[in-house]
Task: inverse folding
């Protein structure tokens, strides 16, 4: 907040006069409590300042009526706040908001009042790690050795769509053979909701996806006659992997595709669009899997000389 804004907030706090409270009561009893508490709360912006002033004035007036001393540790004690919200406030749509504001102020402005600490924020959910080159080679080899032709085709399709086009269970289960199209620049996969788009297939997987599409025709590449949400999970669960080989994971296939593009230097706007997402957090978490670039090449790129 700029210094001008801070000064404006301070002026508003000093000049604050609540509506509906007699002037003598405000000046003699409430103001000495409310104004210092408002300054201590350091509201950011006029709306916050007005909200804090309103609830502090209301609870202070109620405390005076109830014979409760206007001490910050007493007024903003959890028990006082709850009694005020249940008995001193009218049942209006504003009551939950007033309670939330008083709880916030209680935690911030008191030192001894028995407020429970806020729960620790949940750690961010990390994306599934991409497959290494060796793991991916083992996975592809296992897919070719599945015990039935149906399992073989489903596994190969799931791998090709995941590593070749970044499609996880949200999209891979809905891709028909007719959704694989040849365009001037190569091969693309049409996908629907969420985020309908055409995803360019990595050149290394174009022939495999075209072959699988020709076999599938107007059927789904991953088999089956429905697109229920557990389709790709079932394929992964039935996947027959070799000894000490990685498990088949749709999520890991997608992050492998993302990491591949990051290593290639694909620009983020185009990669986000192809991935069907606006969330960049996943990409940030995958940077540690991107191999370092040759320093000379990186310098040329940073200079814009390439």
Result:
């Amino acid at each position: 907040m700029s210094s001008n804004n801070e000064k404006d907030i301070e002026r508003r706090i000093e000049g604050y006069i609540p509506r509906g409270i007699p002037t003598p009561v405000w000046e003699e009893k409430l103001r000495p409590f409310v104004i210092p508490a408002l300054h201590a709360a350091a509201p950011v912006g006029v709306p916050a300042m007005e909200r804090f002033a309103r609830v502090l004035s209301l609870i202070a007036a109620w405390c005076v009526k109830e014979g409760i001393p206007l001490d910050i540790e007493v007024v903003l004690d959890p028990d006082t706040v709850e009694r005020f919200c249940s008995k001193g406030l009218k049942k209006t749509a504003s009551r939950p908001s007033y309670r939330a504001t008083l709880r916030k102020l209680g935690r911030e402005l008191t030192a001894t009042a028995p407020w429970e600490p806020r729960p620790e924020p949940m750690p961010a959910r990390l994306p599934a790690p991409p497959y290494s080159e060796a793991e991916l080679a083992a996975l592809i080899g296992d897919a070719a050795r599945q015990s039935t032709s149906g399992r073989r085709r489903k596994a190969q399709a799931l791998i090709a769509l995941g590593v070749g086009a970044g499609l996880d269970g949200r999209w891979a289960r809905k891709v028909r053979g007719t959704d694989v199209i040849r365009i001037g620049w190569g091969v693309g996969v049409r996908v629907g909701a969420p985020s309908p788009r055409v995803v360019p297939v990595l050149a290394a997987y174009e022939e495999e996806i075209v072959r699988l599409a020709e076999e599938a025709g107007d059927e789904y590449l991953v088999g089956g006659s429905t697109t229920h949400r557990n389709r790709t999970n079932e394929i992964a669960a039935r996947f027959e992997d070799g000894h000490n080989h990685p498990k088949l994971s749709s999520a890991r296939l997608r992050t492998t595709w993302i990491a591949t593009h990051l290593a290639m230097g694909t620009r983020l706007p185009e990669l986000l669009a192809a991935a069907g997402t606006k969330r960049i957090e996943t990409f940030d978490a995958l940077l540690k899997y991107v191999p370092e670039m040759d320093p000379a090449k990186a310098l040329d790129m940073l200079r814009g000389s390439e």
Notes: The chain has a mean pLDDT of 91. The radius of gyration is 31 Å.
